[in-house]
Amino acid sequence: MTTAPEAPATYRLIDGKQTAEDIKVEIAAEVAQRKAAGQKTPHLAAILVGHDGGSETYVRNKVLACERVGFDSTLLRYEDDITEAELLAKVEELNQDADIDGFIVQLPLPKHISSEKVIETIRPEKDVDGFHPMNIGRMVAGLPALLPATPSGIVELLRRYGLVTDGKHCVVIGRSNIVGTPVSILLAKNLEPGNCTVTLCHSRTRNLAEITRTADILVAALGRPGFVTADMVRPGAVVIDVGTTRVEDATKKAGWALKGDVNFEEVAPKASYITPVPGGVGPMTIAMLLLNTLRAAKGEVYPR
């Protein structure tokens, strides 16, 4: 008869906010060196369509992050009645602008605009979100690429906390093209961190809790607040919560609070390491976006 492993006496928070700050310090130092050597200052542009609260906050944080590391930044704002043709024309304009090293079109977009068409119109060498099929394909093939920011941020957290991934079972809940699918690919690669045996779960997965309880590393990226409960987690697991959903909260000045996909109060006592929300994966997304912009400016993936 086997005995179930005991839960750890304490858990350790994976501090994405501090880790992101560390990365920004590193980037800022390299940018300062580039400027001192007379090299071009990296330039990140962002297109924001409409007035979605979450998008407004995220883009504002990107602009502030650019200032923090010494990048040039440009924010282009449009009302949500912009036509698809007009937006695609602006994307092409940024493609041709030699001063712009990378740019993003903030998602989600209004329903009358195809996100896929917009993403495919961005030149791969300027696609610092890492969403273009060329960058995704190169990632799958193990070639240098501008990696999707959130998945690469998750991998970087595992790296910087020295967490062993080799041979571990990683379960990812959520199969989006932005997080779930690419992080499952990255963690399965023969890399460090990597070399996981990965199970990718989704809305049609049967016996989900039975599967998640086998995970050494559990990544929750499905956008359902509090979905992952204690009975779904193996004692001692590393838990990565990607969820950032606004939930009404009358106790907060803003009237809402950010909630992750993991029921933190229940799950944390069973975990060895866990990311909080906010302050976990979220800040890493912006840090990795900055890192992609620096790589684009240096021509590391697509030489100029």
TrEMBL record:
NADP(+) binds at G174, R175, S176, T244. One of its GO terms (molecular function) is methenyltetrahydrofolate cyclohydrolase activity. InterPro entries: Aminoacid_DH-like_N_sf (IPR046346), NAD(P)-bd_dom_sf (IPR036291), THF_DH/CycHdrlase (IPR000672), THF_DH/CycHdrlase_cat_dom (IPR020630), THF_DH/CycHdrlase_CS (IPR020867), THF_DH/CycHdrlase_NAD-bd_dom (IPR020631). GO terms for biological process: L-histidine biosynthetic process; methionine biosynthetic process; purine nucleotide biosynthetic process; tetrahydrofolate interconversion. Residues 14-129 form the Tetrahydrofolate dehydrogenase/cyclohydrolase catalytic domain. It holds the Pfam family THF_DHG_CYH. Gene3D superfamilies: Leucine Dehydrogenase, chain A, domain 1 (3.40.50.10860), NAD(P)-binding Rossmann-like Domain (3.40.50.720). The keyword NADP applies. Keywords: Amino-acid biosynthesis, Histidine biosynthesis, Hydrolase, Methionine biosynthesis, Multifunctional enzyme, NADP, One-carbon metabolism, Oxidoreductase, Purine biosynthesis. Belongs to the tetrahydrofolate dehydrogenase/cyclohydrolase family. Catalyzes the oxidation of 5,10-methylenetetrahydrofolate to 5,10-methenyltetrahydrofolate and then the hydrolysis of 5,10-methenyltetrahydrofolate to 10-formyltetrahydrofolate. This is Bifunctional protein FolD. It comes from Hymenobacter elongatus.
